C-alpha cells in the first residue's frame, strides 16, 4: 500500500464495522479524505462527542446521553405498557413506526445455551423488578420470530405468569408481501390467525 | 427516534458514506457505541489525525501525508515506467498486486462530455509535463475497461504519440474465471489475444 500508516490504520479500523469489508472501507476512507473539510473533520468531532456522552440507560438499556433515557424519564410514556425487545436497534425500529406510546425494556440479546447466555446475562431480573415497581399492566414481548427469540419470550412469559397481561406481536403476511415469496410457517400462521372482513 | 441529537446526527453522517445506507449506518453506530472505549474513541482520534495530515500528492495525485507522496520521492521507483490510473483506489489495487515497480499518475476521473469533464479537469496536462521532464520511457495506460476509460486512454495516447512507448493492460479471462459467466466481449478479446502454450 502506498498510503501511509495512519490512512492504513483508519481503513483497517473502518473495515471492522458491521456491514463494511476491506473494499468498502477503502472506498469510504478515500471518500472521507477527498471531502475532509466537509465530512471527515465533522465526523471525527461528532464521534468524539458521542464517545464522551453516549451511555446505556440504567433502567431500560436504551442508548442515550444520560443515565436514564428520554423515554424512561417522560411521564407521557408511563401508560402501563412495557415493550420487551432484544436490542436497541429493535427499539429504534419500533420508535420509527410510531405505533407504541409506552416504555421499553431492552434485553441485550436472547437466552442461548450454546453461548452460555442465561437470564443473569440479559436484563431479565431488572425486567421482573420493573413490572412490579412501575405499575405495568401489559408486557408486549416484541422479540424476533427466531428460535432463540421465541425461547426467550417463553421463559419471560413463565416468569411473569399471572402478574400482568402478556401479549406478543401478531404474525402474518407483511404489508406488501407476496404469498409466493413467503415461507410455509408464515402462511400457516397467517391462515390460523385469519380475520373476518 | 429515541436516541438523542448527536447520535442521530452521527447516524445521518455515516449513512452518507459510500457502501452504507441508513440501516447499516444505524448498525455501525450502535456497534461503535457499544465498544466506545475500544473502537469509537480511537476511530475519532485517527480520523482527526488523518483529516489534519492527509493530502493529495502534488506530482501524481496519490493520497498521502506529505506534499509529494512516498512513491514519487522514492528513487527506486524512478525506473522510467509510468502507470496512468483513473483513481487512487486503482493505484492501491495495483500496489496490492505488487507487480509494478515504477511510478503512478492518478487522473482523478475520466473524460466525459456529458459531465463536462475535459483534459483540464483531469491531471492530463501534468501527465504530459511529467513524461517530458521525468525521463519516462513507457506509459502504461491502466484505465478501466469501460467506454469512458477507453476514450480517455485513446485521448492520452494521441497526445503522447511518438514521445514514449505506450502500453495498456492485457484483456482476457480473469484468473479463476469461468467462461460460462464471462461476457462476449471478454471472450472475443481473450480469443483474439490467444497465446501459444
UniProtKB/TrEMBL annotation, chains A, B:
Gene3D superfamilies: 3.40.1360.10, RecR Domain 1 (1.10.8.420)
Presence of keyword Zinc-finger: yes
SMART domains with a match to the protein in the record: TOPRIM
Keywords for this protein: DNA damage, DNA recombination, DNA repair, Metal-binding, Zinc, Zinc-finger
Coiled-coil residue windows: none
Gene Ontology biological process terms from the UniProt entry: DNA recombination; DNA repair
Family: Belongs to the RecR family.
HAMAP family per record: RecR
Protein name: Recombination protein RecR
